[in-house]
Amino acid sequence: MSISERRSQLNIRHLRSDQRHRRGLTVRKVAVQRRVSFGNPLLLFKLLLNADYVRLWSIGVSLNIVFWLETVALGIYVYELTQSAFAVGFIGFLRLVPLLLLGAFIGTIADRVNRRVMLATTNFTSAIIYLVLGVLVVTGRIELWHVSAGAFIGGVLWATDFPVRRAMIGDSLPPDRLPAAFGVDMASGNFARIFGPLVGGVFIQAIGMQGVYFLGAAMFTMASLIALSMLFTKTGRNETAAIDETGNGRTYDLRSGLRHVRTDAILLVTIIVTVVMNIFAFPYQLMIPVIGTDKLHVDPVLVGLLFSVEGVGATLGALVVAAMAQPRHFTRVFTYSSVGLLALLMAFALVPWYWLAIPLLFVSGFAMSGFATMQSVIVVISTSPAMRGRVLG
Length: 393
Hints:
CATH topology: Growth Hormone, Chain: A
Mean pLDDT: 76
Number of helices: 17
Order of helices and strands: HHHHHHHHHHHHHHHHH
Radius of gyration: 22 Å
Structural class: mainly alpha
């Protein structure tokens, strides 16, 4: 048999395997749509019976508390330090760069290794770095490049949340509980947004940036210990190893993740919209202190209140999505929420009155939850467990 004939046979085998894989995904999607029932409120309480989900949820709450507390504190601190809106925007850019550029590569690693160990390691490393930053503030040796490095590292940790922790949520629960699971996870994270910014404003005004860093170090340490206590055994490595035994080693490869995204129209649109939102929507979070201080002329506590009001809207939005959204509404909720969020943020940037900024941010939080919850749900139900890390990244 010639080399060309062998290649032809291999291509045919790969094509048949790919077709079987696509049919399997389609069957899983239909099964999920038939089995998911949001009319049963007991579904939310059943999540609490899964010990691993509760641990993953707790880690997510810890991460969100630190993220939102640090968001408002960083914006205020950097602006007081430099009096430059550009510097504040640059810090926000550094936090988003890992999410945009490293997410897929982090996901590839997460699909190869034990995700539980990776989750514990990233949180413990962050705890050490935040402790060092806190000491630098106390000793008066902190400089802007230290803060910038800390913001970038915080962005790396945030980038690991999707392909590691959220992929583990997808692996630890049956498909019919995933929408409710991600809705509750999003709601609790948004609940942290209510108090995190208020605490951040109080910390900056009463204690200083060192309090933010020390609290972050404590929360990351706790998250690392929780991760190590998990009973989780189903990892990306085990899933892909099983597939490798069948002769298809492409699941390890980043290109296989990209190829999978290209072959699923809904998944491709979801990823594109997510990239657009990460570039044009989410940088606004670090600009709220600039708008609040320069344009609305309020103190750090009232700046924190702006974040918290958005958190209230996001919490209510996530609970509504978790309890009421039907599978046929997933893409519709995702699209309307994305467009609505962009329009509301444009209005917030132009508003001259503090009292009008509050309801705008409240509704923005509601829209943000619809986008973020549906984003995770659509990706997880459209992707096999062995590939979730790369696609979520």
